[in-house]
Amino acid sequence: MKLHHRVWVVWAVGLAAYLVGVMHRTSFGVAGLDAAARFTAGPEALSGFVVLQLLVYASLQIPVGVLLDRFGARRLVVAGAFTMAAGQLMLALATDLPLAILARVLVGAGDALTFISVLSVVTAWFPARRVPLMTQLTGLIGQLGQVLSAVPLALLLHGSGWTAAFASAAGLGVAVALAALAVVRNRPPGAPAPPPAASLREVVDGLVSSWREPGTRLGLWTHMGTQFSGTVFALLWGVPYLVVGQGLSSAAASAMLALLVGVGIVAGPLFGEFTARHPLRRSWLVLAVIGTTAVMWTVVLAVPPPAPRWLLVLLVCVLALGGPASMVGFDYARTFNPGHRQGAAVGIVNVGGFFASLVVSLAVGVVLGQIGPDGGYSPDAFRGAWMVQYVIWGLALVGVLGARRRARRKLAVDGVVVPPLRELLAARRRAR
Questions:
Q1: Which residue range forms the structural domain that includes residue 140?
Q2: Do 21 and 143 form a contact (C-beta atoms < 8 A)?
Q3: N or C terminus: fewer CB in 10 A for the chain?
Q4: Residue 344 CB contacts under 8 Å (≥ 6 apart), including other chains
């Protein structure tokens, strides 16, 4: 097979592994109300499923980055796919809460191994100029996994039942694991071999150096501020909110999740091209997405429920921008760190959004349990619960602005001066 063709085959299989991983990750979002009935779980216990899954995912990001630099992407993608499949099979058979929670822990662990490993494949197999766009395409096409959970998995769940739905998901996971084992390779033929595995001391030094790099921290705050709202919506609380809080049917709520993915796929290449063309203006895209998301939620929460359908559609469209915008964080990690520590840097960045997601998921469940009727769901309880997001947005905005200032100072030392946007716009007006 010619190298040009092989690049796309390797990428497609890695992408398939990530896509199915996203299906595993988000499968609980469409099954939340069914899980509450199956395991007799209230809002706080239900949020515990996803919080623990995200806690495992976020806490493993830095170790996985280190493992990626040491063992390569292929082994981690295969191990992640098998681990998630085992978790879904366990969930299919679970009839009590402890076993179900353990199943979601396995899903979180396998999920942690997958995404940054697939990004490593993209970086190794594609030219540097195309990496931002291919990163966006990988992240956004991978989000079609949400459609797999929102449509076919939901149909199986409500048709054939819990066990059949999650056992089928496990079978699909095994299939992509075998495909990755057969096809994915860490680098193209003829590419330079990676340096020898680092010692423990070198690993620690690499992590410290990655964290001290202001571009890495800028990536972390970027990922945190843009990603969490849509993730919490898709992973757990979106369907219950739309059904109970806004009066939509289960089918309409699932369609909203599909819309979330579709809009993100359209926005992703546009964001990727902007990032490639204007690398010194990436932060303005990030700030715009954070601000627009916060404003959109403010409008929706200010309207007494049920909100007009068009307004909910607009909310979902805005939430869909968070995924593509969060990919900018990985671009910061790539461009501000040398190749030998990019796995660690990407792992640090990936902690941001998922740590915020687990905090908000837990906080929403706690608020619902405290102010909902009999510890349950109600439109007013959901309005109060979603307010917890503003704390994370504020923290992320402060972090982005501070890290951007330090990153620009470092660029200036290296001879790259980023002029203020107003000066750039004024210069363009004069040029006309």
A1: 3-187+202-417
A2: no
A3: C
A4: 62, 65, 66, 69, 203, 206, 207, 210
426 in any annotated domain? no
* Token digits of residue 330: 């990985």
Long-range contacts of 197-203 (CB under 8 A, 24+ apart): 197/70, 198/69, 198/70, 198/340, 203/66, 203/69, 203/70, 203/344
Q: How far apart are CA 214 and CA 329, in angstroms?
A: 12
What is the pLDDT at residue 2? 65
Domain count, the chain: 1
Q: Is 378 helix (H, G, I), strand (E, B) or coil?
A: coil
- Per-residue pLDDT tens digits for 370-391: 886 765 678 888 999 999 999 9
pLDDT at 322 over 90: yes
Angle ∠(294,401,343) on CA atoms, nearest 5: 95
Query: What's the pLDDT band for 423 if we cut at 50, 70, 90?
Result: low
d(CA 61, CA 223): 13
- List pLDDT tens digits, range 188-209: 887 776 666 667 677 788 788 8
Cβ–Cβ < 8 Å for 64, 80: no
Is the bond preceding 279 in cis, omega lying within 30 degrees of 0? no
CATH number of the domain to which 102 belongs: 1.20.1250.20
Angle at 391 between CA 387 and CA 394, to 5 degrees: 125
Among 195, 189, 216, residue whose Cα is nearest residue 72: 195
Polymer length in residues for the chain: 432
pLDDT at 43: 72
Read off the tokens for 196.
């020898």
350, 112 in Cβ contact below 8 A? no
Question: Considering the domain boundaries, does residue 368 fall inside one?
Answer: yes
In the numeric block, the tokens 């929670």 are attached to 101
- Rounded CA gap, 402 and 419, in Å? 17
Structure-token pair, residue 87? 């978790």
Q: What is the average pLDDT score of the chain?
A: 86
Q: Dig out the tokens for 241 from the structure.
A: 């909110």
Query: Both tokens of residue 43?
Result: 């809002």
Closest CA to 131 of 7, 283, 292: 7
Alpha helix segments (H runs only) across 337-385: 342-371, 379-385
Indicate the DSSP class of residue 304.
P
Answer whether residue 63 is part of any domain: yes
Is residue 429, in this structure, part of any structural domain at all? no
